[in-house]
Design brief:
The protein is mainly alpha-helical. About 65% of the residues lie in helices and about 5% in strands. It contains four helices and two strands; from the N terminus they run ααααββ. It has helices at about 5-10, 20-45, 55-70, 75-90; strands at about 90, 100-105. It has a two-stranded antiparallel sheet with strand order 1-2. The radius of gyration is 20 Å and the shape is elongated.
């Protein structure tokens, strides 16, 4: 058995239709958004004392609206990153860069 055959056998191939791929992407984005919201909500409640009756639900609603704007193309990832960088003084990197914050020089 050649090296190429061994490599090919070691790879698993998944075949999806366009609809299945679309459903997979939507599910992945929704789950990613849920996870991305969970951490800030916990921090806002536990570290900053935000209330669960008004402030946290309002934060989640407004975040969901921004997410939907992004998904609909009314807002771009570049715009979001620029605002985060402006508001925090940190440089948020995404895409091919590592997803991390750096102090802006």
């Amino acid at each position: 058995m050649t090296r190429q055959e061994r490599r090919r056998l070691g790879r698993e191939t998944v075949t999806m239709t366009k609809d299945e791929l679309k459903d997979f992407r939507i599910k992945a984005l929704d789950e990613g958004f849920c996870l991305a919201m969970a951490v800030p909500v916990i921090i806002l409640k536990e570290e900053f004392g935000w209330g669960a009756k008004t402030r946290i639900p309002s934060f989640v609603d407004k975040s969901l609206r921004k997410y939907l704007d992004l998904q609909a193309g009314r807002l771009s990832m570049d715009e979001i990153v620029a605002k985060v960088n402006e508001y925090t003084g940190k440089r948020l990197k995404y895409g091919n860069d590592l997803k991390e914050f750096e102090d802006q020089a």
